[in-house]
C-alpha cells in the first residue's frame, strides 16, 4: 500500500530522454555531463554489440550476449529495446531508472530514436530532447572522422541519419550540438528546471 508523500517532500523527478541522429555526438555529450555534472544520473544501456576501444563495462554499456538480452526482454526488465542499424540490440534496464527517479535524481537517458519512441509510449511524462548537428555536412564529417565504421556501415548510418533528422518535430526541445560544453550546460539547465 502506498502512502501520500509527507508535506514538502519532493515528487520523483522527470526523466529526460536525449536522442538524435547517429554520429551527432550523443555519447560525447553524455560523457561530458557524466564528468562535469556529477548530480546527473546517467542510465547505462545494455547492448549485444562488442565494446569499442576505451569503453568500460557498466560505465558506457552493459555488454551482454544475445541470449541474456532476450531473457531481459522476456522478463520485462527493459523500458525500451531496439535493433540498431539492422545488427545490434540495445535496451534500457528499467530498475535503475525507476530507482534514480524515486531517489529524486536528475536522470538522463541517452538513446536512439526508436528507443525514444518506445519510452514515449511507456513514460509519456518524460521530457524528450533532440540533439541536432549544426549542419548536415558537419554530421557527415563527424561520422567519417570517427573512423570506427567501414564504408558499408557509414553508408547505412548516413541513410539512417537522414530519417532520424526528420523526426526532430516529435521532440519537446532541440539542442544544437555545436559545442559540447555549451550543449551540456544547456541540457543540465533544462534538467534542473524540470
UniProtKB/TrEMBL annotation:
GO CC terms, sorted: cytosol
Alphabetic keyword roster: ATP-binding, Cytoplasm, Kinase, Nucleotide-binding, Transferase
Keyword presence, Phosphoprotein: no
Enzyme Commission designation: 2.7.4.8
Binding site for ATP: 20-27
Compartments where found: Cytoplasm
Enzyme class, broadest EC rank: transferase
Ranges where the Guanylate kinase-like domain occurs: 13-192
Reactions that this protein is recorded to catalyse: GMP + ATP = GDP + ADP
GO molecular function: ATP binding; GMP kinase activity
SUPFAM superfamilies: P-loop containing nucleoside triphosphate hydrolases
Pfam families, per database record: Guanylate_kin (PF00625)
Family: Belongs to the guanylate kinase family.
Protein task: Essential for recycling GMP and indirectly, cGMP.
Protein name as annotated: Guanylate kinase
Organism in which the protein naturally occurs: Pedococcus sp. KACC 23699
Taxonomic placement: Bacteria, Bacillati, Actinomycetota, Actinomycetes, Micrococcales
Amino acid at each position: 500500500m502506498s502512502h501520500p508523500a509527507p508535506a514538502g517532500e519532493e515528487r520523483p523527478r522527470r526523466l529526460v530522454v536525449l536522442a538524435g541522429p547517429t554520429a551527432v555526438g550523443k555519447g560525447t555529450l553524455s560523457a561530458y555531463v557524466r564528468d562535469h555534472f556529477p548530480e546527473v544520473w546517467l542510465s547505462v544501456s545494455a547492448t549485444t554489440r562488442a565494446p569499442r576501444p576505451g569503453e568500460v563495462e557498466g560505465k558506457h554499456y552493459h555488454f551482454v550476449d544475445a541470449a541474456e538480452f532476450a531473457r531481459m526482454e522476456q522478463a520485462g526488465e527493459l523500458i525500451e529495446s531496439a535493433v540498431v542499424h539492422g545488427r545490434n540490440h540495445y535496451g534500457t534496464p528499467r530498475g535503475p531508472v525507476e530507482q534514480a527517479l524515486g531517489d529524486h535524481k536528475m536522470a538522463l537517458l541517452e538513446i536512439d530514436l526508436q528507443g525514444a519512441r518506445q519510452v514515449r509510449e511507456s513514460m509519456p511524462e518524460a521530457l524528450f530532447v533532440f540533439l541536432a548537428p549544426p549542419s548536415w555536412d558537419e554530421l557527415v564529417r563527424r561520422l567519417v572522422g570517427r573512423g570506427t565504421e567501414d564504408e558499408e556501415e557509414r553508408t547505412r548510418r548516413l541513410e539512417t541519419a537522414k530519417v532520424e533528422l526528420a523526426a526532430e518535430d516529435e521532440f519537446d526541445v532541440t539542442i544544437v550540438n555545436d559545442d559540447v560544453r555549451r550543449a551540456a550546460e544547456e541540457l543540465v539547465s533544462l534538467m534542473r528546471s524540470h
